[in-house]
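Q: Could you write out the predicted structure for this multi-component system? I'm mainly interested in how the pieces pack against one another.
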Amino acid sequence: MLKEFLLRIGTKVLAMLYFFGGLAVLSGQACRWVFLAPLKRGRILEQARKSGVDSLPIVALISLFIGVIFTFQIAYLMQRLGSEMYIATIVALSLVRELGPVITALIVAGRVGAAITAEIGSMQVTEQIDALETLSVSPVKYLVVPRLVALALMLPLLTLYADIIGIFGGYLICVYKLDISSTIYMKMTFESLLFKDLFTGLAKTVVFGMVIALVSCYEGFNVQGGSVGVGKATMKAVVTSFILIIATDCFFTALFYFIFP
Amino acid sequence: MTMIEIKKLHKRFNGRKVLDGVNLKIPEGRTLVIIGRSGCGKSVLLKHIIGLLKPDSGGVLVDGVDITGLKEEELERVRQKIEMVFQGGALFDSLTVGENVGFRYLEHGGMEKDALEKRVSESLALVGLYSIENMMPSELSGGMKKRVAVARAICTRPRIILYDEPTTGVDPITADSINGLIRSLHDKLKVTSIVVTHDMKSAYAIADRIAMLYEGKIIAEGTPSEIQHSADPVVQQFINGLSTGPITDTNSVHIGAK
């Protein structure tokens, strides 16, 4: 019984070490190609369109809802404290520093990360990855680098967009439901936001984008067992990305707290 | 002159012995067909020849160079001489037929746009396909995909072509035309070819020599006629497609033909 339990724990730990080792190797290879080889602009732009431009509608919709929901919840508390005028401040700071970056990263991990794993996984199953190697093309350079660069560039832009839409959601509730004047809402929003709030919110999304790209590509390359394997890998990529995004966010929040007190 | 030489090649996957001391020599300009049951390690052997897999021990010499210990950059130079036709074609879904065929030149350069377009058309014409450069792989039938894969392989005019199950999954008429295609490419381009298959009709049609892989070893090698008249009961059961015999009798121990 104990032996079985320890064996299971040991297997899980080994699998985790194997995963992080593999991810570290892939990250190293991808960074090497980013800096050593000329980047193919067309391929990066295509990935930027797929991961960024095509994500605009879903990011807008979710951010608007988040802005509305969050404003209602804050309004509930602020009305009890008699501090309605601070609603805009709290909404803006929360969205820009935390909610915007994390929600956008989770949306992109679910939408784009899953698609990357499924695409690369299908290529693995149909031997297209082997074909790339036989044609003397590095799969890391051809498949990972454009996705890595595109996501690292697009996630901050998508987050900025999500921040604006979320704040607009708060504006709708404050102005049309809570009778806060438009001028006060805008004034409280922009006066409360400092450059460091925007910077800390956007800087970590560069890392989130890289995490999504690397985890999704890694899981795609390691697909085994046909279409069932593609499904499993896709699920694993999304779940792992979610966990790593939250863990990375925790790390950066603590780091920025001490760097930019 | 020997173009490919495989020396005492051993490979295990998860403790299971797949290749157990394979020895083979393929002279330049000849076609060797490797036969054997599904899952016996034929494709694994092919992937060692192009450096996609590293052996546990043994050597693979391509044009005199042992590729097993080469670094990626050195291996890429050797791979410029070799092309491989994968079982399902392995065409890149996101690229057009023309881009697939000219892929190596599009990625590495070395040919002007007009010259490349001409080369792509010529390569497609050699496999009997015309004016399909702008089609996507998803619009092609199984047989056409295999032909396009062959066109991609011959586009760079390689010295060696490896074929993994070229007639699997296509109808008998298409299979026969693919056999004819491999034979005619061999005659026209004088390439050294290794074909992995379990389709005996195909093997007899295209082989200069046939080798049978069984339990990780080459148990028979010879001309199609020599293989047909082999005294080895394992070879006879396989080439005649019999459900009873030493291969399917799990307790039997293969002794081999004398």
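A: Regarding packing and overall arrangement: The mean pLDDT of chain B is 88.
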